[in-house]
């Protein structure tokens, strides 16, 4: 099935009133974790509000939320600035996700069944088609659905909630900007699928953990290329 060609889309304004603060926070996290704003850089409310198409109020609320998460700090006479972000910080974000995702994958292994495996196979084929069409937006969507299918099969709501909480710090739209991510995602998904078909929970967990950590290393390399850190860091 041929995929539709992407159409250019204007920068969209944020969503409903209740979502404004959360969506603004997600946008700012993406700017930070993509290296487009650097540690120590001042975040001007008016400029961000103009870019996001909202008033300064949800942007201010977003920055307060990000301050509690450690992404920004409030400095006297400067306002909100991007907090220091080390390689270890980025790696830690993914190591937390890797541990939880591995446990969920292990729990899913005896529960997923033929129907679940069939859905994962279909999602993996969609991922391959999106890659062939160079549709990174669709790749990210199918990647998200692939992992969600495994997490739901684990039937561990609180653990899945914990993973969602950890994963929200790394915006989904970021993965498509990482060189080599499409190839890594497809190869790793194939290996995870093979272990799921074999019913080998230990191998599934190991491969899922390695997969998430590997994606974290891709982000570290991406930020290094952008000059985020000095050589000594």
TrEMBL record:
Gene Ontology MF terms in the entry: DNA binding; DNA-binding transcription factor activity
SMART domains xref list: FCD (SM00895), HTH_GNTR (SM00345)
Family matches, as Pfam families: FCD, GntR
Keyword DNA-binding appears in the UniProt entry: yes
Domain of life per record: Bacteria
HTH gntR-type domain boundaries: 18-85
Keyword annotations from UniProtKB, A to Z: DNA-binding, Transcription, Transcription regulation
InterPro entries: GntR_C, TF_FadR/GntR_C, Tscrpt_reg_HTH_GntR, WH-like_DNA-bd_sf, WH_DNA-bd_sf
PANTHER family given in the database record: GLUCONATE OPERON TRANSCRIPTIONAL REPRESSOR, TRANSCRIPTIONAL REGULATOR, GNTR FAMILY
Protein name as annotated: GntR family transcriptional regulator
Organism: Actinomadura hallensis
